Amino acid sequence: MEIKTVRGMKDILPGEVARWERVEQSARSTLRAYGFEEIRTPVLEATGLFERAIGQATDIVSKEMYTFNERGGASVSLRPEATASVCRAYVEHHMNSEGALAKLYLIGPMFRTERPQAGRQRQFHQISAEAIGCAHPLADVEMITLLSDLLIGAGADRFTLLLNSVGCGHETCRARFVTLFTQYLKAHLPSLCPECRGRYPKRVWRILDCKKEGCRKVTRGGPSLAEHIRTAACDCGRHFETVQKGLKASGVAFQIEPCLVRGLDYYTKTAFEVVAQGLGAQDAVAAGGRYDGLVELLGGPQVGGVGMAIGLERLMLALEAGGKNAAEEAKGGVYVALLGESGVESALHFVRKLREGGVPCHMAFETSRSLKSQLREADRLKLRSVVMLGEREMERQVVTVKDLVAREQKELPIRELVAYLTRAVQ
Ligand code: ATP
Ligand code: MG
């Protein structure tokens, strides 16, 4: 019986990889321009890392992690997101030395056992960035501007940046709001959707961003998170104002979304999400926010941090929906066709030389194949030129080069071949 990919996991086939590479390359150059350096952490981490960082009661940790015991017993999990791992690495490798800001990015697969649907997989990929070691609101501005530039650089143009502040644990800030909100909800439980009723009273926080109309009506009638943050005794209100001013000055458009909260416990103050048009229900291509207590929670110094993650599968879908992600027509490459045994040795020599010169090169292995079938293969591979090496050509020290785009062919002295083809593909 045929064995297929595991549910919710997808192969990214050669035809698609070119598009992924394009997006990743443009991202890397934007990230470099913003002063971010790449970090690569293991996909497997101690389960305790995510329990502590993301929060045990969150959907991600309580329901969506691939968790198993290593031989010998320790519980490990496939990473469901990157921030916890990057902050762990920041602490483990003492990256806070001299109080420097660590600007790190990671590109790689994440794993969550969610129900697969369009734009939702069990293995998906993120480009994520973290700026650790700074509590200043301008770090949030830089992170959000970076996100906007990454999306524009990838070719996405129809997206909306939603912005909110989720406050902090100060007794006059989010903590007070949550107490009042929990009290308020008690009388309205029957009007909530079953899922939100299940979130009461431990995860009332998530009820705020439920998209169902019934729940929205209830939350709109309750205490206002924005008002609490604005009037709290901590600096959350001022922080949020500075972020908004900074974004305006940077020319980044945003929309305040007072019900936006994130599903991970570690967020404080700034929270944001990017939604793209044409994606249906799974329309969030990126999300992020500030996480001021996280590094300390992981045993590190008391420093602030801010980060974001772009979902690459959803970004690809958004680019397709906007007609921006068409497969690129092949531009070059050479097929070395063989007309009998006598050309084999010369062919091996040329193929090596051409590849050295950076010319993508394919070679027929079976000399018994007809020229017609070899030309068909070159067409299928979308190559530009075919070099024909046969007995007659070898005797005369010439080769025939056929240009499949211009549909013409010419004969060249053999010693000019490499230089000619290297020029032709550039
Ligand atoms: P959603 O509300 O869509 O479940 P999320 O809030 O769980 O998203 P984050 O944890 O903030 O998402 O992850 C950041 C980004 O990663 C999302 O905006 C999305 O683009 C992408 N993402 C998250 N989960 C998945 C998934 N299961 N499949 C594909 N992409 C995902
Ligand atoms: Mg989710």
**Overall spatial form:** elongated
Ligand roster:
adenosine-5'-triphosphate, magnesium ion
Query: Could you say what the CATH architecture of the largest domain is?
Result: 2-Layer Sandwich
Query: Portion of residues in helices?
Result: 25-40%
Which whole number gives the mean pLDDT?
92
What CATH calls the topology of the largest domain is: BirA Bifunctional Protein, domain 2
CATH superfamily of the largest domain: Bira Bifunctional Protein, Domain 2
What radius of gyration results from the CA coordinates?
28 Å
* Main beta sheet: 8 strands, mixed
State the name of the first-level CATH class of the largest domain.
Alpha Beta
Beta-strand level of the residues, as a percent range?
A: 15-25%
User: Which stretches of 5+ consecutive residues score pLDDT under 50?
Assistant: none
> What is the domain tally?
2
Question: Helix- and strand-based class?
Answer: alpha+beta
Query: What is the overall number of helices?
Result: 17
List how many beta strands DSSP finds: 16
Q: Can you list the strand order of the major beta sheet? A: 1-5-6-11-10-9-7-8
Q: Compute the separation of the termini in Å.
A: 47 Å
